[in-house]
Specification:
Elements lengths: L21 E5 L2 H10 L7 E4 L2 E4 L8 E5 L4 H14 L3 E10 L9 E10 L16 E2 L3 H13 L5 E8 L7 H9 L4 E3 L2 H10 L3 E11 L6 E2 L4 H20 L1
Parallel strand pairs: 1-4, 1-5, 5-10, 6-8, 8-9
Antiparallel strand pairs: 2-3, 3-4, 5-9, 6-7, 6-10, 10-11
Helix pairs in contact: 1-6, 2-5, 3-6
């Protein structure tokens, strides 16, 4: 854990909510709404968190909160900072990604065991791009637990590194080739920063992604309306509830 020498520090505020010990960070609005519907969260159980929503079920049978939607590393870390200072000790990130590896296709599920840093937030949380190996890491124990519980639910997934970038319209052929050589599975915008900030704040974190599109052939193949993409997202939402309840 690094020294927090920031002048402005995250604070609980006058009326902090209960984030539970486990928090889900869900990047897409449709998946956020799906999870809220699955556990019957009403409007009066949510509050504004920056430009997103924070929901903590009143039903004592659920041991987790949900935050989303959001996009981009800086904003995702703002949300993580709030969850951490409120008391969340385990955070699971759930989002979408583009396929970089030829072995990964639309609708596939990825557990991100590391994330190559190509965003600007991680360096402010102790990530050393000079002496480091270029990757940010999740909690090993939480990641292994999630993988085990996904297998128990009969959900097939890939596991391996992803690439986090600030610029989704600058995924060039040269960069794709570079990250393919690093055995990267997919590309998205937040995970490396979330992993870096969570380590800085001494919070366990892990990440799950569903493949929404492909750039592995150097031609963009969108799959946002693909039936397999929709079914995989629904399966992950249901699995996440079981995972949280098992932690």
């Amino acid at each position: 854990m690094y020294e927090d020498d920031g002048i402005v520090k995250p604070v609980k505020g006058r009326n902090p909510p209960d984030p539970k010990s486990i928090a889900l960070m869900v990047s897409s609005r449709t998946d956020f709404d799906c999870l809220c519907n699955l556990i019957d969260i009403k409007d009066d159980q949510s509050r504004v968190l920056h430009y997103s929503k924070f929901c903590s079920p009143k039903n004592s049978g659920y041991n987790f909160s949900i935050t989303g939607p959001f996009a981009g590393a800086p904003y995702a870390v703002m949300l993580l900072e709030a969850l951490a200072v409120w008391g969340a000790s385990k955070i699971i990130f759930y989002g979408w990604c583009g396929a970089v590896s030829n072995s990964v296709k639309i609708g596939d599920i990825i557990v991100a065991t590391s994330a190559f840093v190509d965003e600007g937030t991680s360096k402010h949380y102790g990530y050393d791009e000079v002496s480091g190996n270029g990757v940010a890491l999740p909690s090993f124990d939480l990641t292994e637990t999630i993988k085990s519980l996904l297998r128990q639910s009969g959900i097939h997934f890939h596991e391996g590194p992803v690439w986090s970038t600030d610029a989704i319209y600058r995924e060039t052929p040269e960069k794709v080739a570079y990250y393919k050589e690093k055995n990267v599975l997919g590309v998205e915008m937040e995970i490396s920063a979330i992993y870096s900030a969570a380590k800085f704040r001494n919070v366990e974190v892990a990440g799950i992604l569903v493949v929404s599109d492909e750039i592995s052939t150097l031609k963009w193949k969108p799959g946002f309306r693909d039936d397999r993409f929709r079914k995989s997202r629904a399966a992950v939402c249901e699995a996440l509830i079981k995972i949280c309840q098992s932690l």
